[in-house]
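INFO batch 0412 | record 1 of 1 | parsing
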Amino acid sequence: MSKLTLNVALVESNPDVTITVGVQRYEKSTLDTLREEHRGRYLVKRGGEDGNSILTVPRKAGLPALGTSSTQVKLAEAPWLLAPLAMEALLEFFTQLQRPILRSRPLRVVSQRPTNLLPVDTKLPPWLQRRVVLDFETRTVYGADRRASVILACGVRTRNAIEANCAETLGAGIPLIGRYVGRKRNALDSRALPYLKLAGRVIDFGGLC
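INFO prediction complete | emitting tokens
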């Protein structure tokens, strides 16, 4: 029987810590704008009863509350805020270390050690790699007393990466006819790397490359 390892850490807050939460009416366009304008400075999320509010939490000292009203919340009693704030702090940590971020939620970070897992003696091009990826996500669990606890779940997996365009791939002698290719798109979160969006299946070379 295989042995399973549960990689989790408990996320807690000092019971005396109180945070200011700005509140305003939910509109998707407003939510998107606030996230874009205040990324890294505020936590911006949808919340409230029936999800009809936008909640904003300053992440740096001295920042004013954003919203039409504000309220004081004990962070230890608000797992719906503690969990995303923990993820924001972890994302900022890896960003400051200049680690490649694949996604912000769930947080996926390319590990720097080890580097390319493909053996050097295979003499493969440097743009063909297999890398270790660290995954982080929060979960809220409830005990028998119905008290909520926030845990940080950590995972490790590998990712194949082809950092080459069609011309470079063909130049290496790799056929593309019948294969699927993608185009790079900027992530909504500017702290994350561009991602590949499926462009289609190659049937000829009339402009895809």
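INFO post-check: The chain has one domain: 8-163.
INFO record closed
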